[in-house]
Amino acid sequence: MKRFVLCTILLCCLLSQSLDEILHKVYQNNNAIGMSVIVTAKNKMVFSGVYGLRDVDRKLSITQDTIYRIASISKMITATALMQLFERGKFQLDDDISDYLKYKVVHPHFPKEKITFRSLLAHTSGLRDDKAYYTFLREDDIIPLRELLCEEGKYFSRNLFDEKHPPGYFKYANVNYGVIASLVEVLSEERFDKYCERYIFAPLNITASFNIHTLKNVDNIAALYRYKDEQWQAQADHFQGKPPAKKDFSGYTPGTNGFLFAPQGGLRISAKNLAKLMMFYYDKQNNNVLQSPTKELMYKIVWQYDKKNGDNYYGIFNSYALGNHTTTDLIRGEKLIGHPGEAYGLISDMYFSPTKEFGIVFISNGAKNWQKGKHSGWYRIEEEVFQHCYAFVQKYLAE
User: Fold this and answer.
1) What are 127's strand-pairing partners?
2) Which residues contact 285 (CB under 8 A, 6 or more apart)?
3) Based on CB atoms within 10 Å of each CB, which residue in 50, 164, 285, 293 is the most buried?
């Protein structure tokens, strides 16, 4: 028996070493500046690899504790916060959000169609990332969300709403998740960043935040890069050891404007802690943040692409649920649930199989040029990382 266990451990070590060498070549061949990869099986991290730099100027390496601004994977965590409040009976998914925000949000092109919690979560609300949305985001002052969503608001634009298609048509839009964060604040009477810390991160023993000033060491945060004019140019999180200026929230009323915490893409977390979160999502026994029936409801497909009912975002989103989607394209034929992210040069992925209980986290803080994938809407590096990690975890689970 001892000999069998020892052989199994040695085989796993050899598999990990082989995968590490393969991924290092993937990292080099794709001209990435840095990347982190985690593979999980059941309730364990069975592989962890780090490659390259988190800060080019200071030549700081990516480590197991490097924190990334993970872009749109954040939406799944924002959806989790809202679904906790659903679980507590605070609202129903098909309720009109106007009844909770305490001001009327009306689709100007389809005024009889209500905007619901479900439609926000599934990007079928009719809201769009129009110019008005970006103008609103750039404001330094704390501006109430109603100034964007209500017709009498300073930042309102009819172009913020889809003119051609009624609610039900899928169009991926960040604006939905700023509204969701505001609803989390209204329903919980707590600031969005603090709510997530209290009810998601702390119970799972995870270091993560939607507010950079709660992170202890900004030196651990990876700068995000694009390659321009034959040099790496930092696009975001280039703090060089000094945290950015604090925003004064002393007079802030929860529900005013959830966008302040970037719920659509601004979660900062390490790959290791993101993997912990991922294991919670597929672990049917772990009900400490969400009950299993609520998780299953989150994964239930709301919208399915039929070539006429939405924009499938380069072929990535052929279905969408409540803050996540299902794909069989990233690993051909393997059904995975999760979310991708892309912003400021970074790309990120968190995908898992609830039935086979494995998952893969991939994050890179930039590359000279992301190459298109060969068989899906993802980039080549994403396809390659997932292909090799999948082969590894299949062998691991077979042992």
Assistant:
1) 161
2) none
3) 50
Report how far residue 95's alpha carbon sits from residue 394's, in angstroms, rounded to the nearest whole number. 43
Single-letter residue type at 339:
H
Region of poorest pLDDT, from 8-12, 148-152, 167-171, 381-385: 8-12
- For residue 83, the model assigns a pLDDT of 99
65 near 109, Cβ under 8 Å?
A: no
Domain 13-398 has CATH 3.40.50.10540: no
What was the pLDDT predicted at 4? 43
Quick one: average pLDDT of 220-239? 97
| Helix (H), strand (E) at residue 6 | helix 2-29
Residue type, 28: Q
Beta bridge partners of 40: 45, 359
**Where does the pLDDT of residue 15 fall: very low under 50, low under 70, confident under 90, or very high at 90 and above?**
low
Q: What span, in angstroms and rounded, lies between the C-alpha atoms of 316 and 313? A: 6
CA distance 72 to 54: 20
93 closest CA partner among 117, 124, 115: 117
E strand map for 331-378: 336-343, 346-353, 358-364
Residue 22 has which token pair? Answer: 């393969």
Helical ranges in 244-351 per DSSP H: 271-282, 292-299
Q: How far apart are CA 200 and CA 223, in angstroms?
A: 25
DSSP bridge partners of 372: 379
Taking CA atoms, 221 is separated from 70, 345, 346, 363, 365, in Å, by 11, 15, 13, 13, 10
Residue 297 CA from chain centroid, whole number: 18
Query: What does pLDDT average to over the chain?
Result: 95
Q: For residue 115, which of 166, 181, 186, 174 has the smallest C-alpha distance?
A: 166
pLDDT at 5: 43
Residues 6+ apart with CB under 8 A from 147: 136, 153, 154, 155, 156
Angle at 267 between CA 263 and CA 268, to 5 degrees: 165
> Which of these, 211, 179, 173, lies nearest to 195 by C-alpha position?
211
CA Rg, the chain, in Å?
Answer: 21
CA separation for the pair 385, 375 (Å, rounded): 14
Q: How many CB atoms lie within 10 A of CB 267?
A: 30
